[in-house]
Every structure is written in C-alpha cells, then in structure tokens.
Design brief:
single chain; about 600 residues; mainly beta; 8-stranded antiparallel beta sheet; 1 helix; DUF1080 domain-containing protein; AL/BT2_dom
Length: about 600
C-alpha cells in the first residue's frame, strides 16, 4: 500500500524525504587515506579553554579528525555527486579550522568563529576565495556569510547545503557556473543563489567537472561530524503531459454545484495556469494530466492556489478540499511508482477581493523541486514585503512570541519582551514566568506577523535560534514542575515589570516565593549572556539554571545541555534527576550569577 502524508504548513523542508543517511559506523563511505588522523568515535568533547583540543570516547556514529605532525590527510568520499543536497552536524574544537568541499573543488569554510561580530569569507559558513599565482598567491572573490551564526566550540552545529553542479555541453565546454543554491547554518540562511566561477583555494583539481567527491579538510585542526545526510538530485525531473482543462462559470459553494454541469470552456495547455478562465472570479476549473515519473519513491508536492481546491494523484486523495488565500501554500508527500501517474486538480473561486493564482511544484527522490505552471500564473500572489526590526542599538520590543521546538509549536508567550543588542545576541523574556524562553544570534526581529493583513500580534526571531524551557528560575525545590511549568500557586509569582538603565537595557523585577528578585541579563564579550539574579531574603529556594533531557559536566563549572546544544557556566552547580529530566541547580543566595553560552 502506498503511504500518504499530508502536511498543511509553511515550513515543510522539501527534499528531506530524498536523503540517504551516511553510515558512520566505519569509514566505508570514504576513500582510504593511509593516515591516522581520521577515526570513528562514539562521543567527542572539546575544551573551551584549550586550542585545537578534542577528546574522544570509543563507539560508533561520529567521524573525527585529530591531525598531528605526521597525519594531516584530507578525506574524500568514494562516491561522486553533481546536483546535491547535503547536511550534517559538526563540532569545532576551540580555535580550530576545517572546510567542506563540494565536488572537491568548492570550499564551505568550517571554523571556530565564535564571537566574530562581522564575519568574512574565511569565517564559519563562508564560501572561500579563489586563488591565482601571479607570481605570488592572490586571493579573489569569496563570499562572507550574512551573519555569524557560529556556535561556541564544543557544541554541535548543523549545516544544510544545496548545490548545483556546473553545466557542460556535449563537447565538454562549461556553459553554466556551479551554484550554491543555499546554505543554512544552525537554521539561518547564510547564502542564496551564489554563482561559483571556479574552484576555491585548495581543490582536488582546478578543472571543473559534472561530478566530484565530497572532501573534508584534514590538515588544520580538530573537528567532528555526525548525522550526514545526502540527497543526490542530478536526475531528470518528472515530465508533465499536456493538460486538459474544463472551466465552469458561476458562484459555486461546493463541487457538487458544478461537477454535473456542462463546462463553459475546454481545451489543452502545456503548463498549469488559472487564466484559462476569462474572468478572475466566480469560476471553477478541473485540470487533468499525467506526470511521467522517472524513479519510484516518495515525491513532495507544493501548491499555491486562490480559493477552494482539492488534488488527486494516482487515484488517491493528495489534498482534501480546503480554502486558501493567494499567499498560502499547502504541502503533501506521496509514494509514486515509476511511469505515467494521473493528476487531477479541482479549484473553484468566489472571493472577488482575492487575486487568482495557481502554482504547482514537485520534487522527487532524484530531482529538485520543479515548477509545472506558467510564470504568469503565480505573479498575482507575491509574498508581502517583510517588516523587519534591527537592533543597531539596545532595543526592547513587546509582542506575542510563538515558541517552537523541532518544528512543533510549543506555546504562545503573550507577555514576552524581546531584547535586542548591537552585538547580534538577543533574547526573549516571558514576563508571566520570569524565564528566558529563547536566545538567538544574528538579526533581530521580523515583525511582519504583527502588521501584515489583520496581524496576529506576534514577531519572529531572525537569527540562529535556540529555544529554552519556559520555566521559572526560582523554585522551592528542583522537582517543582517540569520544563513547561508555571508556579503552582498564583501567589508564588508576581511580576513587577522592568527598569531600563542608561544604555536602555532592562532589569526585570518580580516577587517569587516570598523573595523580591531583580533579574538582569547582559551580553558579555560579544559571545554569550550573563544572567545575574539579586534575591532579597532568600529562604531556602533553589535556582534552576537549566532543564533538559541530558546535562553533562564537561569542565570545571561548565555544563552542556541537551546533547551539547549549549553551555551553562556556573559555580557550585549540581545535576539532579527529576523524572525523565535532568535539572542543573544552585542554592538561592543574595546574588546568583551564571552564563548561557552558545
């Protein structure tokens, strides 16, 4: 039986289904190097205070480079790729340097760039420069990342790369440059549609080719990798046959109002388009065609239509009948066989205030997302201009904030305070809970949701975002509540607002468990946040510094949380277990200070 998954969302990552996970139980995915700097490990740890130092634990699943004077080989994949999407986690040792080469020729820089305010092409996520020798080495081009989204050394980071190989004619002459379609680092877009005129420095060859291996630089510093996923997208896309259409005119409320009618117009077109109708409203359309699928497997469909519509593919419902606005998109996935697969789209529109639009994209297990509509058919629904807020100086901005984790919405914080800093380190504070609920690096806020159309009062962080538990920091004991709790008694917590200092930075004030608390969060060294709690009359309470599924001590006064996603640095802390969770605590005192490093 074919599997069908429907997702009505704006954030389904197209192409994720086509990925193959690279086994790191051994080195079989890679060519032998004859050197000992590459190994497989079960866990790794990097010391924040020691340059290029990484320790390993026995096991499988992590690829580690530990170079020394005699073992400094680069690592090449055995397979070669053209158009490809690749993503992986990586960990940099402090002050360490490496690089990931597409086709062994185009380097994406991997570097400990923690705290760099204005990143250059050589910083983490940058596209490295090309080089010439005239007669000395000369570097040119290169592309700096939009922001510094690099995390602290010793933390796991995630990079996603979409690459288009150079194109060649039948005679082997290059007719189109290679292109980085996009690079995301820790969830933030660093590059989009960057043409690469030739190999960057240190390639396997200065000659370009349709295919080439991955290469990881192994001659600089300690670095580790895990969760490699690769989608080979060099195949030809599915071909859509000529499309038969029927058009009905009238104010139709549901399909039964027109399905039994004789159509007012019929015909055939080569690309989907709403304008087979002679009017922009009060019409229904039925499009029938086939997709010639080159390779069996899971296919992703994306639709953008105005009005009500439903879609059937291969004799099954792909999308049920639903109303959407011109800018809305719907996504679905379906396993398809190779060969000709029938497609039927039924749409009907009665909202005259809404511009018509019809767009359809499909991505398969071996080809990128491909449009099957005419360009003019989607021009009526361009995205709204974003309303962006920068933090060129310290700024405090009130809004609703929706908290997400792993793509799932956790809750809406209705009394949130977003605090921006020109250092490009920002946070959101929940006034209802006395909690830092998210922190991020990069640009400040997208306030479009507040003002676009009717608005919903929310804003969104624009950088590399880390969501934290929305939980009170001061509690009677470590086991009071969970990661999403609020005080059990209404009288336990009472917010008193916040004061701004001379630099317009807030100090939050509240009463909690009989104590007056001042809660101050400040950026330190352009790298991390320092939180200082001034507690008047502490009475045996506990300060919960972190909650997570996993908390580990990695150095004196330094702890990692949830699989090395961020650090807490604090003196005198204790790791406790509360049910399935771990809690990092210190006893409450008149002054408690700790750092959140990421």
């Amino acid at each position: 039986m074919k599997k069908l998954l429907l997702v009505m969302s704006l954030c389904l990552p197209l192409g994720s289904f086509a990925q193959e996970t690279v086994s790191l139980n051994d080195l079989s995915f890679w060519k032998p190097t004859g050197k000992a700097n590459w190994q497989i490990a079960g866990d790794v740890t990097a010391d924040l205070t020691k340059n290029e130092t990484m320790t390993t634990q026995a096991g499988k699943g992590i690829l580690v480079n530990l170079p020394d004077a005699n073992n400094r080989a680069n690592l090449l994949s055995a397979a070669e790729y053209g158009d490809v999407d690749v993503e992986f986690d990586f960990m940099m040792a402090s002050h360490s340097n490496s690089g990931f080469y597409l086709q062994g020729r185009y380097e994406i820089q991997l570097l400990d760039s923690w705290g760099v305010k204005k990143p250059a092409y050589g910083d983490c996520g940058g596209i490295y420069k090309r080089r010439k020798f005239i007669p000395q080495e000369y570097l040119y081009e290169g592309h700096a990342p939009r922001i510094n989204a690099c995390l602290a050394p010793g933390l796991w980071q995630h990079i996603q790369i979409s690459f288009q190989a150079p194109r060649f004619d039948a005679a082997g002459k290059k007719i189109a440059n290679a292109k980085v379609i996009s690079i995301r680092l820790n969830g933030y877009v660093l590059h989009e549609n960057v043409e690469l005129t030739g190999p960057t420095g240190g390639p396997i060859s200065e000659d370009e080719a349709p295919l080439g291996p991955f290469m990881i630089q192994g001659d600089h510093g300690a670095v580790a990798f895990r969760n490699f996923k690769v989608a080979d997208l060099s195949g030809k896309p599915a071909v859509m046959a000529p499309i038969a259409y029927k058009v009905f005119y009238g104010k139709f409320k549901e399909p039964k109002d027109f399905l039994s009618k004789k159509p007012d117009a019929t015909g055939t077109i080569n690309n989907l388009s709403w304008d087979v109708s002679k009017q922009t409203n009060d019409f229904a359309q039925i499009f029938t065609t086939t997709l010639d699928v080159p390779k069996a497997g899971k296919h992703s469909f994306e639709f953008q239509l105005a009005g009500k519509y439903y879609v059937n593919v291969n004799g099954k419902e792909l999308l049920p009948d639903a109303w959407t606005f011109s800018r809305d998109k719907r996504f679905a996935e379906m396993d398809l066989p190779a060969g000709k697969v029938p497609v039927e789209i039924t749409v009907y529109k009665t909202d005259g205030w809404m511009p018509p639009i019809l767009g359809m994209w499909v991505q398969g297990p071996s080809f990128r997302s491909t449009a099957y509509h005419s360009l003019a058919s989607t021009l009526a629904g361009p995205p709204a201009d974003p309303i962006l807020l920068d933090a060129k100086e310290p700024i405090v901005f009130r809004s609703f904030t929706d908290l997400f984790k792993e793509g799932k919405k956790l809750k809406r914080v209705v009394h949130s305070v977003n605090v921006g800093n020109p250092s490009n380190l920002h946070y959101t504070y929940d006034l209802d809970n006395g909690a830092i609920v998210q922190i991020w690096k990069g640009d400040f806020l997208d306030t479009s949701p507040m003002w676009d159309d009717r608005g919903d009062g929310s804003s969104r962080a624009r950088g590399a975002l880390l969501t934290l538990p929305d939980s009170p920091v001061l509690v009677a004991s470590a086991d009071k509540g969970t990661s999403s709790d609020v005080p059990a008694e209404a009288a336990a917590y009472r917010p008193l607002g916040y004061d701004l200092d001379a630099n317009d930075l807030p100090t939050f004030r509240y009463k909690m468990l009989g104590s007056d608390v001042e809660d101050q969060i400040r950026v330190t060294d352009n790298k991390y946040l320092t939180r200082t709690l001034s507690i008047k009359n502490p009475a045996g309470q506990v300060v919960r510094l972190a909650l997570g599924n996993e908390i580990s001590k990695v150095a004196e006064d330094t702890y990692t949380v949830d699989g090395k996603s961020y650090y807490i640095k604090a003196s005198g802390a204790t790791i406790e277990s509360v049910g399935a969770q771990k809690v990092l605590t210190v006893p409450a005192s008149e002054k408690v200070q700790y750092a959140i490093m990421w």
